[in-house]
Amino acid sequence: MKTTIYYFTGTGNSLQIAEETGRMLGNTEIVAINKLSGTDHVSLSERIGFVFPLYYFGLPGIVERFIQNLDLDNSTYIFSLITCEFGNGKAIRQLDNIMSGKNRNMDSAFYIPMPNNYHSPPFMLPPMPRKQGEIINRAIKKLYKSIQIIQRGEQKKSHESWLFNTILLSERNHNLWKKKLPLIDKRYSFTEACTSCGICTKVCPVDNICFSENRPEWNGNCEMCMACLNLCPEKAIQYMGNNIKRGYLNPNIKLKALMN
């Protein structure tokens, strides 16, 4: 069976999961969502997968928009693999709602815990390299079990707490977060350590960063992936006025693979 996996990633976690999934399934095409974003797309594969990180306990905006505009008429099985730091959120429920609007089902969906890359609040740090490896090894074991379910064509999903999602993570709260996204990149700044290397512009998956007078500028189209913050080689990018102590790049992904 031909499979197409559509993925979105900032610092490589979801790309690794997409690549591992493709290797396990075989006969798989792996496509970056940000390369197709803004266009209607028709998938011709029988089996479709979405791999992406959990943002504010839900779908990244770019992923939500892409799936809403994706033609799934040719697919017979649809699955999702959602990378997150721990626990889960409401992304599967959001996916189910989108699929319902297309008269389709999300056949299987699983949360895959991976190393954290988030720096909000500023005291949050990615794990140390040894811990990263331990987390990723556990993730691959969980992924293998999920892939077996997908290969058998079964319908199964990770559990999402109704109470947790309804009271603490309501759709209203997630929508408020999405509305703030255009202004969130105003929280980014840079220090004199910036060497104008341009890596931040190349790793931004939505081309939200440009250079003006050899210095980065953010243009109000942020997805909050924090690739620029994590991958700056000089740690010259700040978030809310704070320097980061440790960036994160998935240890199994090359920086070049994340560049546009």
Would you kindly provide a written description of the structure presented here, covering whatever features stand out?
The two termini are 30 Å apart. The chain is globular and about 55 Å long. The longest helix is centred in the middle third of the chain and has 23 residues, at 129-151. A hairpin with a 2-residue loop joins strand 12 (237-239) and strand 13. It is of the alpha/beta class and 260 residues long. The chain has two domains: 3-160, Flavodoxin domain (Rossmann fold); 170-242, Alpha-Beta Plaits (2-Layer Sandwich), CATH 3.30.70.20. The mean pLDDT is 91. It has a six-stranded parallel β-sheet. Helix 1 runs parallel beside helix 5. 35% of the residues lie in helices and 20% in strands.
Shape: globular
Here the CATH topology of the largest domain equals Rossmann fold
Percent of residues in helices comes to 25-40%
What is the second-level CATH architecture of the largest domain?
A: 3-Layer(aba) Sandwich
CATH class of the largest domain: Alpha Beta
- Structural class, from secondary structure content? alpha/beta
Q: Report on the biggest sheet.
A: 6 strands, parallel
Average per-residue pLDDT, rounded, comes to 91
For the biggest β-sheet, the strand order reads: 2-1-4-6-7-8
**Into which percentage range does the β-strand content fall?**
15-25%
What are the low-pLDDT stretches, counting only 5+ consecutive residues below 50?
A: none
CA radius of gyration = 18 Å
Please give the domain count: 2
Count of helical regions: 9
Number of strands: 13
* CATH homologous superfamily grouping of the largest domain: Flavodoxin domain
Order of helices and strands: EHEHEEHEEHEHEHHEHEEHEE
How far is the N terminus from the C terminus?
30 Å
